[in-house]
Design brief:
The chain is of the alpha+beta class. The protein is built from 10 helices and 19 strands. The longest helix has 20 residues.
């Protein structure tokens, strides 16, 4: 291609994948001969300042991760001609591709897949990061049978409320409701993936978005479909209430090892890895090292980021790399339950980043191979900005952008911050039916000040217009930050059989107009 900007110091070998968000190429670092994956951001997205800001912020979120189970970032380069991420290269394929070929996996092999990817997730949880999109497409199986978790494209800080996002077939009940991000939701998604490995199907098979939401929130855990020895893991990991699951990936790994040891003996992991390697060996042409033709990248925001030794947030030249902040909104969903497309698929094609490790890479999720992280004995390219002398391959690369984002040095003695205050002028709420048992409330808050506003939503079910009826489930608590333009959106699965659903919004501090309500007459009922 003519007049296409490329990262200096790399020789391109071939394209691995492309899409609306950009393209991924296999390249070689000219100074060391190390193969890498280079993701080039599309010109369209590079011209969006808001996106680029989130693109950088995501790397700061994940930059502290130091684990061989998350892809390593070599370099982020940004200049007048383009922006690119240089990453490790791995010769591997996604778990989705393996399941498509094999249908399901032996319990020992499934346990190995789960453990390997959970170790990457555990590192994220220790750093306060919640993945929010654990699924077979984001689990990589290398040629030796090892497994890794990749793609932190919609990751969020623990405890934040970034909105409803994820892939519906694997989303925890609280994730459907837009509750704060928590490691327990990742445990749920990992268990759903584990169940699919064991049985060849997803734990819940709703034919549409609404059915799937209700099943995840209300249907019994299908543990009896899994082999009996591993049912405790399914039962715990798919528990409806987050407090009934292992609290994080590290705790889940401990339970997994106990169950595996008791059921399959001390050599379970070695046997399972051999079985995985044998399954992967059935698909040699899909490995990046095979030189397969380029395939399209996923249309969904999927980013995997790691960090090389010596790279740390706050270093001079730090630029956020490899991510997009994606917020799915229930009101704007287009979803195919059977296909498992992520929430808000049409809105999520902001950035499809593939990540990788030494040996090769392929485009992100199925049907092609997945470019993802894998540790390797191969030397890492050591990079520094021109015109510096070529560094030694034995030293880790540094993040060296051509364009450095502005930084502000804090004063030696910062002035005391004023105590946050807020006044709530008004609050409004509207309710609409989005499925047979699913409603969605939209809350608008008018407030002045700096302190956050707490919004409590109470749900009701009844048979009379103008009367809220009986409480339906537990109230939900949301947080509104004054100045935010977007309204708060909250989904609720109604359990009552009445024809009128209702909602009441109350703020703390109290709004000037009190606690407004709204009511909707649902479709299953007819007006007599």
């Amino acid at each position: 291609m003519k007049n296409v900007w490329t990262v200096p110091g790399y020789a391109h070998v071939r394209e691995l994948g492309s899409g609306g968000s950009g393209r991924v190429v296999l390249a070689v670092h000219e100074a060391t001969g190390t193969p890498v994956a280079v993701k080039y951001l599309s010109d369209r997205l590079r011209e969006d300042p808001a996106f680029v800001g989130e693109f950088r912020a995501e790397a700061r979120l994940l930059g502290g991760l130091d684990t061989p189970y998350v892809v390593r970032l070599y370099e982020y380069v940004e200049g007048p001609g383009g922006a690119a991420i240089v990453m490790e290269l791995v010769d591997g394929i996604s778990l989705r591709v393996l399941l498509k070929q094999a249908g399901q996996a032996d319990p020992e092999a499934a346990l190995v897949v789960l453990k390997g990817s959970l170790l990457g997730l555990a590192a994220a949880h220790r750093a306060g990061v919640v993945h929010r999109d654990y699924k077979p497409e984001n689990v990589l199986v290398a040629s030796d049978g090892s497994s890794k978790l990749v793609d932190f494209g919609i990751a969020a800080r623990r405890g934040t409320t970034p909105g409803v996002a994820g892939t519906p077939a694997y989303m925890a009940p609280e994730q459907w409701q837009g509750r704060p991000a928590s490691p327990a939701a990742d445990v749920y998604a990992a268990t759903a993936t584990f169940f699919e490995c064991l049985t060849g199907r997803k734990p819940f098979a709703g034919e549409n978005f609404a059915e799937l939401a209700v099943q995840h929130m209300e249907a019994p855990v299908p543990e009896t479909e899994a082999p009996e020895p591993v049912r405790p893991l399914i039962r715990r990991g798919l528990a409806k209430a987050p407090e009934q699951r292992p609290e994080n990936a590290e705790a889940f790994v401990a339970e997994l090892e106990g169950v595996a040891l008791a059921a399959y003996g001390p050599d379970w992991e070695e046997r399972g890895q051999r079985k995985l390697a044998a399954l992967a060996a059935l698909l040699p042409l899909l490995f990046p090292s095979a030189g397969a033709p380029a395939a399209g990248t996923t249309a969904v925001a999927t980013t995997s980021i790691g960090n090389s030794a010596g790279w740390a947030p706050g270093r001079r030249g730090l630029v956020a790399a490899g991510a997009a902040l994606v917020l799915g909104v229930l009101a704007a969903l287009t979803y195919s339950a059977s296909g498992g497309e992520p929430v808000g698929a049409s809105a999520l094609n902001a950035f499809a980043t593939s990540s990788a490790s030494p040996g090769g890479a392929g485009p992100a999720p199925a049907p092609g191979p997945s470019v993802s992280a894998t540790p390797s004995p191969s030397p890492s390219p050591s990079l520094s900005p021109s015109p510096s002398p070529t560094p030694s391959p034995s030293h880790p690369p540094t993040v060296t952008p051509t364009t450095t984002p502005p930084t502000t040095k804090p004063p030696t003695t910062p002035p005391p911050s004023p105590k946050p205050t807020v006044v709530v002028g008004a609050v409004s709420v509207t309710l609409r039916e989005t499925g047979p048992s699913l409603g969605q409330a939209t809350v608008t808050v008018e407030a002045k000040g700096t302190a956050p506003v707490t919004v409590v939503l109470e749900w009701f079910n009844g048979d009379a217009e103008g009367k809220l009826g009986s409480p339906d489930g537990s109230p939900d608590t949301l947080t509104y930050q004054p100045g935010a333009a977007a309204p708060l959106v909250k989904a609720h699965a109604f359990s009552g059989r009445g024809c009128y659903w209702g909602v009441r919004a109350t703020t703390k501090p109290a709004a000037g107009n009190g606690s407004p309500t709204d009511q909707v007459f649902i479709r299953r009922c007819t007006i007599s």
